[in-house]
Amino acid sequence: MEAAATLAAGGLTVTVMEKTDHLGGHLADWYHLFPDRRPGREVLQLLTKRVQEGASVLLNCDVTDIERNKEGFVIHTRQHPPVEAQALLVATGFDLFEVRKKEEYGYGIYDNIITSAELEKMLSGGQPLLTTRGTVPRRVGFVHCVGSRDAKAGNLYCSRVCCITAVKQAIEIRERLPQAEVFSFYMDLRMYGMGFEELYKEAQEKWAVNFIRGRLSEAFENQDGTLMLKVEDTLTARPLRMNVDLLVLMAGMVPSAGTKEISRMLGLELEESRFIRPRDRHMSPNRTNIPGVFIAGSCTAPMSVADTIADARGAAVEIMTSPPAPLLERRGEKGVRS
Amino acid sequence: MINFGYTINTDRQIDYDNNDRRIAAFLSEHEPTFRICISCGTCTATCSAGNFTYFNLREMIVMLKRGETRQLKEDVTKCMLCGKCQMACPRGVNTRNLILSIHRAIERFEQP
Question: Which of A208, A233, A241 sits opposite B28 (nearest CB)?
Answer without folding.
Answer: A208
